[in-house]
Design brief:
The protein is α/β, with parallel strands linked by helices and 444 residues long. Helices cover 27% and strands 33% of the residues. It has 14 helices and 22 strands. The protein has an 8-stranded mixed sheet with strand order 1-2-4-3-5-6-7-8, with helices on both faces. Strand 5, helix 5 and strand 6 form a beta-alpha-beta unit.
Length: 444
């Protein structure tokens, strides 16, 4: 945090005096948290507006001090310190994505005269995403950087698959998957307290006594308790995802999930950047935003189709499979990685594997997993039975299971941790965000 604050001071005082003078500052009363909020505006004469939402911490709108004057040369720019952070008033309030979305709606109504673009970083990325899925009026484009809190909190803080994978798979996606040390510490503190975090969050006295009324701890806990399963399918606008490839706070898996789940999203990895790409690689970060705002083209919408290759692999380690297959069968393989694979059927038996942005569409069983440990990110599976699982442990994020007869069928008991996923079949249509103890009695 000291390093970030030093960067903040450097950026503020390195601006020419004229540039700083062009950015107006005011403190006003806002109606959602009923407190004082710090607002910045620049480029008021421009027709197009860009709204900037910062992440967790008192750096607040200082996150944007390197790029705000640059943006203001072409756009009307509105930034602020979120209530509870920076120079805005700090209170013992419920600082949740839902309430921040209501605050953001107030900002837009007060300061934005028409259509606008929305940029969010970390916590602010989650708030921007929630806004886009619930209050999209006049929103033209969405830019999200290193978004925090989308995965289920068990993935973020408890390393769900760590005991199974770490001995043979150092650096697996579950390792280091922390939103922030603050969130980890907050949830660890709550482990000994038999209290639903949502009850805690909604009670003023409990927030004060257990979380110290600290806006950062409250916002962190409220974020990881938010389920974005119903939000993501409702985001329609073109979306640019920017991610520092060295980020160890909100790892790239979340960006891959969002690219594969949102309807119109494109992911750009920023080499050499960590959680603060606007500082680490400012030119690359700014250029990507300007390019997108001038031409927000979406991803290729061509449907991925299975190929003709048949892949049978036994007793092999560190396989990397990509492209189009008719079928893939893994038996006793360790650390197999399937990336961008399309197939009619995949079997994973006695193996550890990861599936990333894979599309499986067959006439019978799409994905069969037995006695295995599997991480899946942005995986779509369709078939008469989408997925069969037995004696396995799965971490599925952004999974879509569509089965004519069943979306998920279980033989021997298995454990599945779902993050922002969904299942559709003749029996049910459900969103899935949490731990699922699967057995033969609770198919989907």
């Amino acid at each position: 945090m000291v390093q970030i604050f030093a960067l903040f001071l450097l950026f503020v005082f390195s601006f020419p005096a004229a540039s700083r003078a062009d950015i107006s500052k005011e403190v006003v009363s806002e109606p959602v948290f009923k407190g004082k909020v710090f607002i910045l505006e620049g480029g008021k004469s421009h027709a197009e507006t860009v709204v900037l939402v910062h992440g967790l911490g008192d750096l607040a709108s200082g996150t944007w001090h390197a790029m705000l004057p640059v943006l203001a040369e072409k756009y009307h720019v509105v930034a602020f310190d979120l209530p509870g952070f920076g120079r805005s008033e700090k209170k013992n309030e419920l600082y949740s994505p839902e309430r921040y979305t209501a605050f953001l709606k107030w900002v837009v109504e007060k300061y934005v005269p028409g259509p606008f673009h929305l940029v969010g970083h970390s916590l602010g990325g989650s708030v921007a995403l929630y806004f886009a899925g619930t209050r999209p009026e006049n929103l033209q484009n969405l830019i999200l950087a290193n978004v925090a809190g989308i995965l289920h909190r068990s993935v973020i803080t408890r390393h769900f698959l760590l005991p199974d994978l770490e001995p043979q798979w150092p650096g697996s996606p579950a390792v280091g998957e922390k939103l922030d040390h603050l969130i980890d510490a907050t949830l660890l503190k709550l482990e000994g307290i038999p209290l639903d975090p949502n009850v805690l969050l909604k009670n003023d006295l409990l927030r004060a006594n257990i979380l110290g009324g600290d806006p950062a701890r409250i916002a962190a806990l409220a974020l990881v308790e938010t389920d974005f399963s119903t939000i993501l399918p409702r985001v329609e606008v073109p979306t640019l995802l920017l991610w520092g490839d060295k980020d160890d706070i909100t790892p790239l898996r979340s960006g891959i999930l969002l690219e594969g789940t949102l309807k119109n999203a494109r992911l750009i990895k920023i080499p050499g950047a960590g959680h603060m790409p606007m500082f680490d690689q400012a030119n690359h970060f700014n250029r990507a935003i300007f390019d997108f705002l001038s031409s927000p083209s979406g991803p290729d919408s061509t449907e991925a189709l299975p190929g003709n290759r048949i892949g049978n692999f036994s007793n092999q380690d560190n396989l990397i499979l990509e492209g189009h297959y008719r079928s893939i069968r893994l038996v006793n393989c360790r650390n197999a990685r399937l990336r961008g694979v399309t197939a009619e059927a995949i079997e994973i038996i006695g193996s550890t594997a990861s599936l990333e942005q894979c599309f499986i569409k067959g006439s019978e069983t799409g994905l069969r997993i037995e006695n295995s440990t599997v991480i899946g990110t942005a995986v779509t599976v369709e078939g008469n039975i989408a997925m069969e699982v037995s004696r396995s442990k799965l971490d599925l994020a952004g999974a879509c299971l569509k089965g004519k007869e069943a979306a998920l069928r279980c033989g021997e008991p298995s454990t599945i941790l779902f993050s922002v996923s969904r299942a559709e079949s003749a029996m049910s249509r459900v969103y899935l965000h949490g731990r699922w103890e699967a057995n033969s009695q609770n198919s989907l």
